[in-house]
Amino acid sequence: MAVSSTPMALDGLVVLDLSRILAGPTATQMLGDLGATVIKVENPKSKGDDTRSWGPNYARDAAGNPTDLSAYFMAANRNKLSISIDLSSEEGQHTVRQLAARADVVVENYKPGGLEKYGLDHTTLLKAHPGLVYCSISGFGQTGPNSAQPGYDLMAQGYGGIMSLTGAPDGPPMKVGVGIADVMCGMYATIGILAALRHRDKTGEGQHIDLALVDAQMAWLINEGTNFLTSGKLPERRGNAHPNIVPYDAFPCADGHVLLAVGNDAQFARFCDAFGMSALAEDTAYATNLARIENRVALTAKITTALADVPRKDVLARCHAVKVPAGPIHSVAEALNSDQAKARDTVVQVAATDTAGGSVALLGNPLKFSRTPVTYRHAPPRFGQDTQTVLDAFEIKPKVD
Fold first, then answer.
1. Does residue 287 fall inside a structural domain?
2. Nearest to 162 by CA among 60, 99, 235, 90
3. Domain encompassing residue 125
4. d(CA 288, CA 268)
5. How deeply is 372 buried, as exposed, middle or buried, from its count of CB atoms within 10 A (0-12, 13-18, 19+)?
């Protein structure tokens, strides 16, 4: 197991990762990035995490053949050690129980109750190890009428309301372009785990964290959720527009689109001056944000006309000159190759000796610490590659009948 000489925030913490797909792996990757030793348990019957086969993009070996490192899998599984264990076998259960005894944290995303038959559920393990932090991630949580239903990002986005807000006003409901319900659930899991560890370190007492994709998704309805709770009115799909700020949208220009985010009345007045529309800022129909919200359709049409023949770079230049927030709409390639991305290490090359070129390109962790920086100690692992190393390092003994 690789050891970093760099001080790390979670150095010495051991995480037993029984999760797969995206929500759980997102949380455990974050903990690994911060220095924890993450042991990812993978099922030999399925040849590991389901996402290993979610192509079509794979890291390739030196001979050019695809490996079991799909791009999807690599997105959430760096800084982990992969061990192959069959939880349905008594030997596998015995091994995992020994690992749990040495762990600070267990993360799992089985259906509620799914680990009871193996003696690996939170009740059993917390009774044996009272200081353990045990995080269960599921679609609908451990309780409630839908608790037995499986959890997938698409279903969480649909059930939790975000799809009803996403898409063009005259189009169908749309999911977000990436698995954001899974990712945000993983982020909530990370926060919950760190808080539970803080409590454990003060009191010696571990606990169970029950986290649901749907609960997390509803929590990040944020302003649109509280808009509804405050007014009783259902939020509308507005495409790229904002329910509480106008103009805040994507607008066509001579050679593409630009984003405008005019956050207050002073910015609106400066925007109008920059594009020859000074009278609009004095018109009572548009002078205040509330008035602009009430007259958004008419104002949007006027702004669209004003920008129609202006090149994108000129729109941005004029806005920036008067300190009005405006920006481009990048493709993924433009975003990841931008000067800003390069300056902030948005893309990192992580050594992977069994892949072509000896490394894999990954999205970097956005956290920038002054004393305990994120480190990239392990590339996403091949299935089961660390099994014997982990068993030896943690002195795991075979089951004796």
1. yes
2. 235
3. 14-220+363-393
4. 9
5. middle
- 367 and 316, same domain (yes or no): no
Per-residue model confidence as pLDDT tens digits over 94-123? 999 999 999 999 999 999 999 999 999 999
Residues 90, 197 share a domain = yes
> Which DSSP string do the residues of 36-60 spell out, in sequence order?
-EEEEEE-TTTTS-GGGG--S-EEE
- Please, are residues 67 and 352 in contact by the beta-carbon 8 Å criterion? no
The residues annotated as belonging to the active site are 182
The closest alpha carbon to 390, from 18, 40, 32, belongs to 40
pLDDT of 216 strictly over 70: yes
Q: Which amino acid is at 161?
A: G
**Under a CB-based contact definition with an 8 Å cutoff, are residues 239 and 165 in contact?**
no
pLDDT digits (tens, 9 = 90+) for 282-322: 999 999 999 999 999 999 999 999 999 999 999 999 999 99
Phi and psi at 8, nearest 5°, equal -125, 145
pTM over 0.85: yes
- Is residue 5 scored above 80 in pLDDT? no
Q: CA 373, 195, 149, 162 torsion: positive or negative?
A: negative
Give the pLDDT confidence of 240-262 residue by residue, as tens digits. Answer: 999 999 999 999 999 999 999 99
